[in-house]
Q: What sequence folds into this?
């Protein structure tokens, strides 16, 4: 029987694939819950066997927003760093496994509590809703696992620099370091909240909790969390997509600079999730809104870079005019099509983000289902379609199998299903949000309130979109199983693009990690110190725990 050729060593492939198995099992569970939610919220369907809407919604948010993303991202980054730096040593691999099992144990603990209906607190676990202590311990274990992975990524990057003095570090390894550095600094906030507020409170050691402080610590982490999802997608856009279209990376320096800006500005902006919360001085909300507008710039730079990459390649192939490149792209290749549609969706997704971040407009959309529409465009489409597109080459390149024409056809179908489903669902969410439809809430006619009559059609549209997405998920799972276990053995390339000859070399200061860490921390201290002191000193009486489900 023919032997497959793996792009990483067998041991590393196994480590990365273990992350992928968890990610795709999570996709199945999470998206199934998503379907049930949209059906329940249409008002025409009731969940069976006493299953609660908030129970399903918590599984959906935790499993997709925290588990699927984290496992896929860590797995992908480990593979990309290993591929471009020359592989991990035994200690690094062992640490990778310890981290993996910590994360799996934490996930099982949290998921069990949600399934037992002991933790229906949604993925934001806002106090004063109080979950079972095991739920919080589980979350803490997941975070500790990711810290160990971050350490592995930093260590491998440092080892590359030591072994190759004066040489430019691999772009993908550099990007993985920035992503994990941002993650480590940001997740400190949620770790402090979970360990010092939630766990003692859930155990009954403290009677009350400072609600505003816990939410502020959550959003200090929560906004960089969305960039933790986005940055690996950007890694794929900058370094992999050019290779898939047969082109080169437009500018290595621009890509690195974009990542530095994302590191600096993605953390001190959490207040834009709390613009309607009393207890935070408006001045500091204003400062963080300005910083939010600054963090939009690196995404604009990414858009520019992508256009430049596509145009350069198009011209090489003889394209003329401003959009002539569109005719030259490999539209039939789902490894390109899926991430490209992800980019396209990020235009309205990003614009919606700017609406959310604008103080006055936030008053209109906050806590409406508009916001749910926003994040289904950004994370569930831009990021997920990019990850699906990456899975098409990543999985076979790790299992020593090939991405065949027939699997590609299925992958194009899956991209179309996802695009159609998400367009219907998220458009309906945006419109219902503008009509005042709330988010994070089960179906209700609010005692026959007339306003709710206008929502009906949009709620049904969400159920239709959700059903199409469910089909898309099933097709994705079929493709994954195929690529992991059944596709013909062979060699699939791990596509990494070269940098254009015209691009200038990145300046040395980009590798000055002490400098970038110091500036990041300075910005965090500037944006958070005074408001945090205020939140602690002027805190109203704390809240007891509530279980409203
Ligand atoms: Fe957001 C709420 C603001 C980006 C996710 N966001 C959320 C929540 C989530 C989320 C999950 O200011 C809900 C949290 C909850 O549970 O409460 N968001 C922003 C801003 C941006 C932004 C300013 N969000 C994201 C990304 C996410 C994400 C990315 C996930 C991955 N968001 C907010 C705010 C709220 C919020 C408020 C709170 C709302 C509230 O009141 O609760 C920016 O980063 C967006 C910048 C992006 C752009 C787009 C650039 C376009 C590109 C594509 C180029 C296309 C090409 C193809 C090349 C400016 C790069 C072209 C081809 C052609 C043919 C044309």
A:
């Amino acid at each position: 029987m023919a032997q497959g050729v793996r792009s990483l060593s067998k041991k590393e492939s196994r480590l990365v694939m273990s992350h992928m198995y968890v990610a795709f099992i999570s996709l199945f569970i999470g998206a199934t819950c998503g379907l049930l939610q949209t059906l329940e919220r249409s008002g025409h369907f009731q969940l069976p066997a006493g299953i609660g809407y908030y129970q399903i919604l918590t599984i959906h948010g935790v499993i997709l927003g925290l588990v699927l993303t984290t496992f896929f991202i860590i797995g992908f980054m480990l593979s990309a760093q290993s591929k471009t730096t020359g592989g991990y040593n035994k200690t690094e691999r062992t640490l990778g496994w310890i981290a993996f099992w910590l994360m799996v144990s934490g996930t099982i603990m949290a998921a069990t509590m949600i399934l037992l209906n002991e933790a229906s607190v949604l993925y934001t676990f806002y106090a004063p809703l109080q979950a079972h202590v095991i739920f919080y311990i589980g979350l803490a274990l997941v975070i500790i696992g990711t810290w160990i992975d971050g350490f592995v990524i930093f260590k491998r990057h440092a080892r590359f620099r030591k072994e190759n003095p004066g040489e430019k570090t691999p772009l993908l390894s550099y990007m993985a370091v920035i992503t994990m550095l941002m993650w480590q600094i940001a997740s400190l906030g949620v770790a402090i909240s979970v360990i010092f507020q939630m766990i003692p409170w859930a155990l009954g050691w403290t009677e009350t909790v400072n609600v505003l402080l816990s939410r502020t610590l959550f959003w200090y982490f929560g906004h960089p969390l969305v960039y933790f999802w986005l940055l690996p997608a950007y890694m794929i856009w900058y370094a992999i997509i050019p290779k898939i279209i047969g082109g080169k990376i437009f500018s290595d320096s621009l890509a690195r600079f974009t990542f530095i800006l994302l590191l600096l500005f993605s953390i001190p902006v959490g207040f834009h999730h709390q613009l309607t919360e009393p207890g935070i001085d408006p001045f500091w909300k204003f400062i963080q809104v300005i910083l939010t507008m600054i963090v939009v710039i690196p995404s604009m730079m990414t858009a520019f870079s992508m256009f430049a990459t596509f145009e350069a390649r198009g011209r090489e192939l003889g394209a003329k005019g401003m959009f002539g490149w569109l005719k030259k792209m490999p539209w039939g290749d789902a490894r390109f099509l899926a991430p490209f549609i992800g980019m396209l969706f990020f235009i309205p997704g990003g614009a919606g983000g700017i609406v959310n971040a604008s103080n006055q407009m936030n008053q209109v959309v906050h806590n409406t289902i508009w916001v749910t529409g926003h994040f289904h465009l950004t994370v569930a489409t831009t990021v997920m379609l990019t990850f699906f597109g990456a899975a098409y080459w990543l999985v076979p390149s790790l299992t020593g199998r090939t991405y065949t024409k027939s699997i590609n056809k299925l992958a194009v179908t899956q991209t179309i299903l996802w695009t159609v489903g998400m367009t219907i669902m998220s458009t309906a969410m945006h419109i219902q949000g503008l009509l005042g439809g709330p988010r994070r809430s089960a179906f209700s006619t609010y005692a026959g309130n007339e306003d709710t009559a206008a929502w009906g059609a949009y709620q049904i549209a969400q159920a239709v979109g959700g059903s199409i997405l469910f089909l898309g998920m099933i097709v994705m799972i079929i493709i994954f199983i195929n690529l992991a276990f059944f596709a013909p053995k062979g060699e699939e390339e791990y596509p990494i693009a070269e940098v254009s000859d015209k691009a200038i070399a990145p300046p040395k200061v980009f590798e000055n990690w002490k400098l970038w860490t110091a500036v990041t921390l300075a910005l965090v201290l500037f944006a958070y110190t005074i408001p945090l002191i205020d939140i602690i000193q002027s805190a109203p009486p704390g809240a007891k725990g509530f279980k409203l489900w």
Observations:
- Residues 282-316 form the longest helix (35 residues).
